[in-house]
Amino acid sequence: MKKRVLGLMLASLMLATTACTSVENNEEGNGNEITEQTVDNQQDDEQSAPEEEEDTENEETVDYSVTYPVTIVDQAGREITITEEPAKIVSGYYISSSLLIALDLDSKMVGIEAKADKRPIYSLSAPELIELPNVGSAKNFDLEGCIALEPDLVILPLKLKESAASLEELGINVILVNPENQELFLEMADIIATATNTVERKNCLVDYINAQDAMLDAAMTNAEAVKVYLAGNSGLLSTACNGMYQSDMIDNAGGVNVAGEIDDTYWVETDYEQILAWNPEYIIIAAEADYDVEDVINDENLAMCDAVVNGNVYKFPSKAEAWDSPVPSGILGSVWLGSIIHSDLISAEQCDSVIEEFYETFYDFKYSEN
Amino acid sequence: MKPSTISNTVKTNLLIISGATILVALFFVSLFVGKFPLSINEMLGGNQLHIQVFLTLRLSRAFVGVLGGFALGLAGFVYQTVFRNPLASPDIIGVASGASAGAAAGILFFSGTFIVTICSFGGAVAAVLLALALASIDRTGKKSTVVLAGIAVHSLMQTILMFLKLSADPERQLASIEYWIMGSLNGINSHIIAPNTVICCVCLIALVLLHRQIILLSADEGEARMLGINVSVWRLILLMISTVTVACIVSMTGLISFVGLLAPHCARKLTGNNSIKTMVLGGIIGGALLCGADILARSVASTELPVSIFTSLIGAPFLIVLLVRGKDNV
Questions:
Q1: Residue B215 in contact with residue B81, Cβ under 8 Å?
Q2: Is residue B79 part of a domain?
Q3: I need a surface site. Which of A187, A213, B95, B173 has the fewest CB within 10 A?
Q4: A183 shares its domain with A228
Q5: Predicted TM-score (pTM) of this structure
Q6: Closest partner residue to B184 among A233, A234, A269, by Cβ?
Q7: Total tally of structural domains belonging to chain B
């Protein structure tokens, strides 16, 4: 079983990596074969499904380059027509900023969200981003600062709908994004890739993510689901319920989210009694939490919880990015979690090699050396 | 003793006994309501998990529910009496906003429930000390000076809180601050309550022992002076003790709205006077209100809800009924 999984994983990795390398080589020679197009989610699905099937066969003949003007529909349902390939991009959201690096667009970025210096992925992959002017955050957006950068395209979180309207009145194109889960992340990637003429690179990223998903599916086919409690960033008693990205991630990794019985789409507060009633086999702490594994192990209220008794308390790695959020590297969260709760099915070495491959391919740095 | 006085005394005693019975009943209900399926048989059979849940979590939560409500109700009575204003509550001199700012600083710069509790307590006490220090600048000793100083400190603490919230990470620290401000007893356990409950109990005993001074302060200032009370000094002492009492509770639970305002109000409406018994009844009503609200907060939904939602939902209609029914005799 283990060998089959490893074989499948290696094959998928090779496929994805080969495709990506060819994208890198082809990117400079993009033609203008696609005429003016309107890309919405439905159309994109229709377009991408046959492409995925024929991907390997037509790799050399399909040209994904975008012809401008192009009209896209963003995640707020607004139509935006972009007349020419954006040369200056501002990203006001860390998830879109990370995607821009993965799409090799960091050199086009002229502004970035607040606290960029707190995100290690920038210093590891594109340190120049830390020096870019900061346009604030969703709760404190610097509208004038953003306008002053004279961007061709601004990518903002959905919460900044009003700021987007103000920017558009000044003729600045704005894409509003809302990557709350994996599906919405992929949708966001489609929209941004179309707007920025990086569809081929995006496909490469999506193929990699799908390949890892398939590997996990195959590995977990006969695995017994492990009970997992995911402790949130804001505190041990905050947890992810069934409508959340993190809950899907636990499922992908062959676990079952003990808080999955709670029907909600955001972090919810629970109590010690509830955790003891669930009695999870593993407690996993969110990557950006202020507390640590030791804090949970030493919490006397959980002394009789199976996860604590057996020392099965782990924290998501945060060396590069928080994998427990819908960032491009989010798939690594499932792989890492799978290697923790099903170490017999996905070894630590396998997990390390997936992580290494991902960052080398899409972020151009060696994860293990940093 | 006149018959009406006797009947009033009997009525008040009956109210206290009824209130205490309801409070005790709610306490026992609270012991057996929660997410963990606690079983008496399992506990008697020596199941360590059930015993631990009962001793460290359930018992302490029920206890803090009762004690916290009692303390907020009693402190509210002191505030309303000292300021001779039925709208006075512990927040009038910035306790709640000080506690919130302290808790926010604790969440932002440290981690751990205990540290946040200490910071919140420190914030509440600092706010009141500042308010009293500002009030002491005006040598006339008017109670309006204390209120104005309290309003100034409240605004200052709100500004600090706003600044801290602005600096907070929206995904984790800001969410924690907001949830703390909403108030909940879900983090209460036997490992963190000891210092606060001990100080709170000492303050409550002191307030009961000082009931004569409290009641005398409800009279006109001139009258109180004639009765041998140094109004300014006793006002500061009683406010300080009440504030520490409230700080002990809110630093553990987060802000609990309405109890400090509503409980003494209800007690006064029921007894029709301003006596030590009314003060105790205010505490009992506060305890029942918070304990009942906490039972609902942890049982009506699949997740914990902020307890203040229920203190307001239960308390407001009760107060309205009392106001409507008792409008002629208040």
A1: yes
A2: yes
A3: A213
A4: no
A5: 0.76
A6: A269
A7: 1
